[in-house]
Amino acid sequence: MSYGTPENLEGIEAYYTHIRRGHPPTAEQLEDLRSRYEAIVGGVFPLRENTDKQVQALEERLNEKYPNIRFACYQGLKHAAPFIEDGVEKMVQDGVKEAVGIVLAPHYSVMSVGGYIKRAKEKAEELGLPISFVQSYHLHPALIEALTVRVEEALEKFGEGAKERVQVVFTAHSLPEKILEMKDPYPEQLLATSKAIAERVGLGRWQFGWQSAGQTGVPWLGPDILDVMKTIQEEGETKEVLVCPVGFVSDHLEVLYDLDIEAQKTARELGLHLERTRSLNTDPLYMEALSDSVYGKLEGK
Fold it and tell me: What is the pLDDT of residues 45-63, one digit of tens each?
């Protein structure tokens, strides 16, 4: 399961309307989102293609690693077709006897992964399909290894002594602050992932920051990555920053626009040297984390 994205520029309004629970965006809001997509990809939508490739790569990995079971991978998206319910329905139509649901996001929140699971579970129960779910895999060794490799290779762009000198900022999609009152595990899981990577790499300076907060009129988790960079510049201890978006698993709007364009623009204005780590996409280590988590659900039963 994944968040979803429109297939083309013409589909942006319907997509945005679905995100807004049936309320069409204003002309200004629509133009803002359209301009962001045009800025990163000129009308080509990488998240859709990346998700398709991840689904295919996971299916191949599962069947290669566990030949005793025949695996078929389906996708269900939160805000675009095929919707989560469509994916479950297709499995039943194809005669699938047992299903495992996993979200292409390693960290659990009741407001994100929990919502995906709820929708899939309700549809599966309605159609009589046995299904279990992977809730999180934020400390899977293969995931930590894949992210560690990315941090180490990105640090090389800063030259000698980068591990001690560069400020590394781990980021994820912000959520409304009310999740803190709910004792939601999302912030703690993200910190645990970040700490595991920092220890593996041997980082001298690292912290956590949030990004891509929604404009909903309620407080969202902070500090935002743009504010983090302003603080780094004001403190003056370093002018080198590496962002590792641990909460995202592929190249899409929050990475290609929010970091590569918006955050880079802020970095230039502040006189900072900003780099970011490569996205996971279909990295074999990420596929290992996913396939192992899926099989673990079956083995556990």
Answer: 667 888 999 999 999 999 9
**b (16+ CB within 10 A) / e for 205-234:** bbebbbbbbeeeeeebbebbbbebbbebbe
Range of the domain at 163: 141-276
116 annotated as belonging to a binding site for a ligand: yes
Binding residue per annotation — 295?
Answer: no
Q: What is the CATH number of the domain that holds 226?
A: 3.40.50.1400
**What percentage of the chain reaches a pLDDT higher than 70?**
97
**pLDDT tens per residue, range 232-277:** 999 999 999 999 999 999 998 899 999 999 999 999 999 999 999 9
Q: Residue 97 class from Cβ within 10 Å (0-12 exposed, 13-18 middle, 19+ buried)? A: exposed
Whether 32 is covered by a domain: the verdict is no
pTM over 0.85: yes
User: Binding residue per annotation — 107?
Assistant: no
**Is 200 a known ligand-binding residue?**
no
**186 annotated as belonging to a binding site for a ligand:** no
20 is annotated as contributing to ligand binding: yes
